[in-house]
Each structure stands twice: as C-alpha cells, then as structure tokens.
Amino acid sequence: MQFYRQLGQIRALTFDLDDTLYDNHPVIVRAEQAMFDWLAQILPPAMVISRDNWQRLKQQLVAVDSSLRHDVSAWRYEALKINFMQLGWRLKDAELAAQQGLDLVLVERNTVDVPAETHRVLALLSAKLPLVGITNGNVDPKKIGLAPYFSEIYQAGRDGLAKPDADLFDCAIRYLKVPAQQILHVGDHLHTDVFGAKQQGLQACWYNDQQRVLTTEKVTCLPDIEISALAELLPLIK
C-alpha cells in the first residue's frame, strides 16, 4: 500500500468492475473469438471480415458517431450491422444478424471467473459502507454474481458518458447523498478511474495488481492511494 496524500473520511466506496474486481482480458479475448467463430459459420470464408478490418471498421464508425465510444454494446451492434450491409444484406436482415451476434458475445462477456477473494472483500466492505459500481463496460453484474454487494451500479451508455467524463461519477454522488470528498473510488485505470474520480472531487485509489511503476506511467494526476490487493481496503474502513 502506498499513500500519495492523506486520506479523508470515507463514507462510501465506488468501484470500477473490469480488471479491478476480476481479470477481464481473457473474457474479452474469448468473446471476440466467439464472434469470429460465429461469423465463420454463417458466411463464406471470403466474406468473413479480418480482425484488422474489424478494428478499422469500428474506428471509422466512431469517427462518424463519437457517442458509440460511450456504449460498447451499441458500438459492436452498429459495426456488425454495417459489416453485413457492406456484404449486400438488406437492412432488416443485417439488424437481425447484428443483434444475434451481440447476444452471442454477451453470453461470453458474462461468463466471468470472479475470484473468491473479491467476493470475500466486497462482502466485508458492503456490511460497513454503501458500495456503488461504475463501469464503462457491458458486463451484467447480476449474471456474474456481483450485484448483491452493490447498492447501485451505473454503466456507460445506459446511464451516461463513459469515464473519465463526469456522468457516472455524478450519478454515484447523487445516489449516495454523500459529499464527493468522502467517497473513495477504486479502479485500475489511471486515466478513466483516477483522473476521472479526482476531477469530480472524489478520493481515488489506484488498484495496481500488475506491478506497474507509477513513474513510468502516463499520469495526469496522482491517486490518493495505491493498492495491489483488494483486501488492503479493509483496514481503511472503520
């Protein structure tokens, strides 16, 4: 545990979900693979979009409609729909297939191995303070077993612009009815989590379980505290 500032009173906690409460990287890899496997099943080999062209298409879409960056489900749906239309499909058929593809990805997206330690720590914390989830992703907390620990969970797209924009933090502050400076936000990302939280007046905890070195990172502002294990939060809560 590393302190960069003296912590103030903590009356509530907000948490990032992906890569903070569980390792999200293998989940995304598996979900992407499932999508490409599905495309290979329904399309002739020559018509299956390559991974490079898939990323290129997504960037082209977000360049036209920047709001897609704040809703990863809508972004994937639109990319699939446009891909099918570029193959000559009718709009209605492209929309139907895009939804099928998104639904398939979401099944994998919600197959998450949440560590037992995460459950243990969240159970102890939620017995003492209100917890609110704040995520830029599209995981369903109910399906992965995390919902019971949280009083509320806010998701980019559905509830506002993605972190580091203010929307989700402001939602949490309004819900908790606690001064922002008495809320500690916990997340793995120095920009979306730490910078985003500090911009809205929250205290910020950088969750660094990858042994990253702060002095080598691109840092907009320092966190108040750095931890490498969620259990390090427990002594902070009276």
Automatic annotation (TrEMBL):
Its cofactor is Mg(2+). The keyword Magnesium applies. One of its GO terms (biological process) is riboflavin biosynthetic process. It is an enzyme of class 3 (hydrolase). This is Flavin mononucleotide phosphatase YigB. GO terms for molecular function: hydrolase activity. Gene3D superfamilies: 1.20.120.1600, HAD superfamily/HAD-like (3.40.50.1000).
